[in-house]
Amino acid sequence: MTKKSAKTARVSKAVPRKMRADAAENRARILEVAKQTFLSSGPDVSMDEIAKLAVVGPGTLYRHFPTRDALVEAVYLTGVQQLSAAQKTFSGSMPPIEALRAWMLLFVDYMAAKQIILPALNLMACGTEKVFAASGPLITTAIEALVARAVESGDLRGDVSGMDMLRAVAGLSYVAPTADWAESAKKMVEILILGLRPGASA
User: Fold this and answer.
1) In this structure, are residues 117 and 80 in contact, taking their beta carbons and an 8 Å threshold?
2) Distance of CA 69 to the CA centre of its chain
3) In the prediction, which pLDDT does 14 show?
4) pLDDT at position 201
5) What is the pTM of this model?
């Protein structure tokens, strides 16, 4: 082996190969199909059924997600990553209060999906501690950035906490977990925003 080829081999081992476009597309489709199937049929749907609905072979599914736990974890974390990305998108394209409102409504949808997938998360062999530890900071960073921007613009009072807003909305999914709790939570978003405006009663 020449010095040049040896150097190239060392570099190729050090730098992970980028996923091919078709492989990335398959992975994204599997995740979206798994999410929608969990939401419509519950967390007990089989891996074979997910592969069939995603129009991929079982081998392709298992190459991306070697175990059911890996798929469930990826579905959950993808939802969290979408929340994090939405914060940046909304902040870059909407006025502060509208960005906060849009993100909070998206957070309600995330909580609704989490309630359905939670039984599958709780059955993971590795437990949920690691998954939630990875997702928590993404959510809190997003809401605090949105609230800080709304406070700076004068749309919200200076004593507003992003975590207080999350707890108020998320709490409805545990206190009143009826079929229509998400609609109540979306109403709560409006109540919170109106109540936390400057000049509103503390």
Assistant:
1) no
2) 17
3) 46
4) 56
5) 0.79
